[in-house]
Amino acid sequence: MRVAFYAPLKSPNHPVPSGDRLMARLLMRALELAGHSVDIISEFRSFAATPKEAAGRRFAAEAELKRLRDDWTRKPHPDLWFCYHPYYKSPDIFGPALCREFAIPYVTAEASYSAKRDATEWGEQQRLVVDGAGEAAVNIVFTERDRAGLAQALPTGSFATLKPFIDTTVFETPPQAKPERLITVAMMRNGDKMQSYTMLAEALRLIGDRPWTLAIAGGGPMRADVERLFSAVDAHRIEWLGELNAGEIAHELGRSGIYVWPGCGEAYGLAYLEAQAAGLPVVALKTAGVPEVVIDGVTGHLTPSGDVQAFAAAIAALLDDPVRRSTMGASARHFVLEERSLKVAAKALDAILHTHVRQKA
Q: Which domains does the chain have, with CATH numbers?
């Protein structure tokens, strides 16, 4: 099929790295690997920080909708509209209308709904997401949390699950682990990321008697704040790696021993899959979408949300038990390479489209 791909939050071509941008690119590659042709149909970013800002974008959105409609009228239109990650701050303003007009299927992936937004100033924006998901041939969900949220608004909606995945190509070389080298990979920005960095710094101070070092890969506007969080730690224990590309991240993961990142508010966290592909057991919180990508007790330890002491104790336990650490690392690598690779996802995604779209076309 000819697929019109649209990511209203952030285009796959957006210059700022993020999990959203990476997942959008992975979905495009999975579609292509399954034999479909994929075009980014629009670079229009519908994201708005406030309801007032959203209202201010309407004129520009109408112009973009007209451009798409005119373009499709003059030449052959796509066979399918695929929208990645619509939510109340960045709904898909174009897809549902164009799909109705040109009689093509509409599909969403990682759409999300939160009932508490309905009675706020965001209610109109959220209604766009729900209405679009209601018209979709299928809504592809990555986590049970997202499914439950959408099902609350759309009890008769069409859903299919695609487990979070990564491109495992760069992790094919066997890792050369340094057992006591902890590592984390995360952007440095306000909100959940800073909350996780704060918790990580507090936890490591509790196990200062262990011979660990920590490598931190990432950058962002809160870099100075993150550095202050770790200022009480001996400087020789912290490696500031800065922002790295995919190959560099794989290399650094492969020479580490344990991946440590609380994951406050994580939708799921592709970095956890990357770490496990490199043979690292994970220590994270049992919260949000993290359990969708880490098997507690098998590929890592998931500790209660907000419990710094439990998080610290889980790291210490792996530092103290090299056999357990090695066994978990091997299980983690097998889990991702065999179950969460791009190749596996491409087959699963194609099967979903075959079931929910092609049979109705």
A: 2-165+341-360 (3.40.50.2000), 169-339 (3.40.50.2000)
